[in-house]
Amino acid sequence: MFxxxxxxxxxSTSPGRWSALLVEPDRARTQLLTDLLRDLGCTExxxxxxxxxxxxxxxxxxxxxxxxxxxxxxxxxxxxxxxFRRAHGMRSNETSTVLTFSGVDRSDILSxxxxxxxxxxxxxxxxxxxxGMLNLLDTQKxxxxxxxxxxxxxxxxxxxxxxxxxxxxxxxxPEALAAMIAAMEALFENARRGPxxxxxxxxxxxxLADFLRAARRDRAIDEAALATQCKALVRQFADHxxxxxxxxxxxxxxxxFLINVVLKDVKKPKLEAEAA
Length: 276
What we know:
5-stranded parallel β-sheet
């Protein structure tokens, strides 16, 4: 089914009107992305659950952006992107393709680049992140290459990345971050069954403190204040998590707080060191 397709493609050109294609098997994440895109002014959102359906859609339409889950089966987002970039005769080849992840490592970045993705995004995802990415894709889109075997953004120029790198993954503590996210996900499931007991807060609070400690490296930390703050943050998360449709929705406020308030002084010294 993944062949070169040459049928007419239409694209919305009315002012203030644009479309997006979601390739996402998870219903909760589809809903999250739909909500964020609508909030950003997207008027046409099409969602499919697999690459085959996505390619059929792209025969006829050229959305502004394709947001595709990187990890799917049996065909993953990397393979979808490779095949999309090899399908000649489609105006939609120039559509920006963004791969989405729950967690990203260096091999994922290289694989996305080699496949022909324009950019990557990592969950949990906020309106600010997605809006910033759309802006960068509009203003800093990489040079487009056409050859016998590839039609897409230049793979020698790297990926478009979020301005300022405002992700928890940017703070240099991947193992501690993964442990914290896992603990918070377990608490989320607990909270959805009813009010979480105090004991359920202990493990994620410790994991959050460990992440902050690792992210700050050797910066001075008041351990007693850190433990108190982490328990309060996790308790607040647990109190509202039960009413949220997905973990991504529930974690978004805490994620934003960690980046904008708690960790903001960690990023500054790092940037200053890189500029020196």
